[in-house]
Amino acid sequence: MHLFLAKAIEANGNLSRASRSLAPPAHSHHGIGDFDIGKIGLGAKNFTADFSQTAEYKKIARLGYVDIRYPTDNLFGIRFEPWHIKIT
Description:
Elements: H1 2-10, H2 15-18, E1 35-36, H3 55-63, E2 66-70, E3 81-87
């Protein structure tokens, strides 16, 4: 709740804009098994499109049993999240 409220304040109270980069409480797929991945040492860039250029991302994409929840062309209008993995 705290993270979403902070994002809403950052978006000048625009909840729609805030929810494009952070799901409101109880609306995340993390509760049903999704998880985030990253590269050690990449820091905050793990949560940007920069992560998709790493060897770690490319390897996980090749494995075939995981998939990105929000690819660049997702129908939800959510920004590209190469770190947000769903089990397929």
